[in-house]
Amino acid sequence: MVPCPLALLLALAATALAEPLRFVDCGSVDGSIQEVNVSPCPTQPCLLHKGTSYSINITFASKIQSQGSKARVYGEMLHVDIPFPIPEPDGCKSGIQCPIQKGHSYSYLNKLPVKSEYPSIKLIVKWELVDDQDQMLFCWKIPVQITS
């Protein structure tokens, strides 16, 4: 039997191995991004393997109060945003303790599943989190390559 503290230590070690990514802020108005982590993504552009799920961890500070938040994810190709479904769009079920308080920092945690049927292509992942007034808490972009 593995004691719970050991499992927690292993999870923290895995998170510590994630390198902060270079990202483009694409319109964070009601929040400021402190760090973007995608795991595993040792180099950029991130190689996203079909049939794999990637861990997303965004640390941001809120400039507003909000009862909730909702994520929207897109694959951007030729300056066109194509919606990219994620398992849990509700930010309050993704590591953020709601209601969101002005001046507080939060860690937003989610998964990015890469389906087997996706084409092998280079594109930009655009990830938005909006508040309950549909204003941008954060928006970031990174280059990725979907591969077999």
Layout of SSEs?
Elements: H1 4-17, E1 24-25, E2 31-39, E3 46-49, E4 52-62, E5 69-77, E6 80-83, E7 105-114, E8 122-131, E9 136-147
Parallel strand pairs: 3-9
Antiparallel strand pairs: 1-9, 2-4, 4-7, 5-6, 5-8, 8-9
Characterize the biggest β-sheet: 6 strands, mixed
N- to C-terminal separation? 36 Å
Shape designation: elongated
- What is the CATH architecture assignment? Sandwich
CATH fold assignment: Immunoglobulin-like
The arrangement of helices and strands along the chain is: HEEEEEEEEE
- CATH C-level class is Mainly Beta
Output mean pLDDT: 87
Radius of gyration: 16 Å
- What portion of the residues fall into strands of 2 or more residues? over 45%
Unreliable stretches, pLDDT < 50, 5 or more residues? 1-17
Number of strands: 9
